[in-house]
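Same chain as my last thread, 184 residues:
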Amino acid sequence: MRSLQGLAHAIDRLNEAIGVTVAWLALFLVLAAFTVVLMRYVFGVGSVKMQESIVYMHAIVFMVAAGYTLLHNGHVRCDIFYAAASPRRRAMVDLIGVFVFLLPTCALIAWAAWPYVVQAWSVREGSPEGSLGIPAVFLLKSVILVFAGLVSLQGIALALHSVLRLAGAEAPAPEPAEAAGHGL
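reply #2:
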């Protein structure tokens, strides 16, 4: 049981560190958007790279931090099964949800994205705006696989925590109302 608990906590720490780090990108996203607006409407100049950087940062913030959001119960749940449930029932719902919904969905996303990402890497896909844009669309598309991987890992951690709770080796998770507001 200790090795399962150690693995779950290691995944939790990984997604916590990634989420906290990536959250800082939101500040740069806002600053970049402000700069683009200022440049365009005050100085009458534009920058395709700056505009594209906003899209890149937005994608990274939401996709790379999805595992962090799952760690902090920030994703939508079907409250009809969860809100009034006992801690044991919530652990069962989490365990079943991971294996029936979350992991198959992440696997499908990764499977569907793989050829898309491989194709982008094979040609080192750049911006549709040519030399004016960011020449790294292939990296941006790779974030889809990072998303699937990090959410899958956090799903495995959630399943391990659920098994440990069902076995009595770990304290029950906080009530859903307590956990709300902690996600990105």
